[in-house]
Design goal:
The complex is a heterodimer of chains A (111) and B (116). With 111 residues, chain A is mostly beta strands. Chain A has no helices and eleven strands. In chain A, strands 2, 4, 5, 9, 10 and 11 form a six-stranded mixed sheet that branches. A five-stranded antiparallel sheet of chain A has the order 1-3-8-7-6, with no helix packed on it. The N and C termini of chain A lie far apart (40 Å). Chain B has 116 residues and is mainly β. Chain B has strands at residues 4-7, 10-13, 19-25, 32-38, 45-51, 57-58, 67-73, 76-81, 90-97, 106-107, 111-115. In chain B, strands 2, 4, 5, 6, 9, 10 and 11 form a seven-stranded mixed sheet that branches. In chain B, strands 1-3-8-7 form a four-stranded antiparallel sheet, with no helix packed on it. In chain B, a hairpin with a 2-residue loop joins strand 7 and strand 8. Chain B is globular and about 35 Å long. Classes of the chains: A mainly beta (111), B mainly beta (116). Chain A binds chain B through residues 32, 34, 36, 41-46, 49, 51, 88, 90, 96-104, and chain B through 6, 32, 34, 42-46, 49, 91, 93, 95, 97, 99, 101, 104-110, 112.
Chain lengths: 111, 116
């Protein structure tokens, strides 16, 4: 069974803090990894993609991938109330671009 | 770039009727499109994968005769929910892939289907 697991939360952080979101996956053949943000009632929006081990930074967001440990994380620096949403981890395996999604972590950034 | 348009955004239909949802890639050619369903407070569940010009591949447990998918061109895929029932009420979202890293995995805005 190919699975992607996330803590459902909610994860509460104060405004300006660093939010750390984690995701583990079971299929060692996974090759592509994505973080999506989903506001209530809306469709997911791509935040980050990462394909190789290490860190990838884009603005306030940093994705971290460790294939040996089969985890991928997302760090959000200087968290803002507008970052409050559900963050979905998605993992792609092989060709065909099919993604498996985690259940999402709800993030709440408090004033 | 990489814009996916999905229509309608909301639809209410009577039980037993059919509903068609359209997904269009506006600025790229989508060789592959995916259809997802999301129930409240749950994650996205892949229903089927469609490739332009060929039959869709359905995930286990998804009735292909109930959820008809057509991907007749590189910019348009449609999902038709046939003989809809209240349990089909859900948030349906399409995703289009152009095959390259820069274009992959763009989602449409979703369709909220309510069957009464």
């Amino acid at each position: 069974q190919k699975e992607v697991e996330q803590n459902s939360g909610p994860l509460s952080v104060p405004e300006g803090a660093i939010a750390s979101l984690n995701c583990t996956y079971s299929d060692r053949g996974s090759q592509s990894f994505f973080w999506y943000r989903q506001y209530s009632g809306k469709s997911p929006e791509l935040i980050m993609s990462i394909y190789s081990n290490g860190d990838k930074e884009d603005g306030r967001f940093t994705a971290q991938l460790n294939k040996a440990s089969q985890y991928v994380s997302l760090l959000i620096r200087d968290s803002q109330p507008s970052d409050s949403a559900t963050y979905l981890c998605a993992v792609g395996t092989g060709g065909g671009n099919k993604l498996t999604f985690g259940t999402g972590t709800q993030l709440k950034v408090e004033l | 770039g990489a814009v996916v348009s999905q229509h309608p955004s909301r639809v209410i239909c009577k039980s037993g009727t059919s509903v068609k949802i359209e997904c269009r890639s506006l600025d790229f050619q989508a060789t592959t499109m995916f259809w997802y369903r999301q129930f409240p407070k749950q994650s996205l569940m892949l229903m089927a994968t469609s490739n332009e010009g060929s039959k869709a591949t359905y995930e286990q447990g998804v009735e292909k005769d109930k959820f008809l998918i057509n991907h007749a061109s590189l910019t348009l895929s449609t999902l038709t929910v046939t003989s809809a029932h209240p349990e089909d009420s859900s948030f349906y979202i399409c995703s289009a892939s152009g095959g390259g890293e820069g274009y992959g995995y763009t989602f449409g805005s979703g369709t909220r289907l309510t069957v009464v």
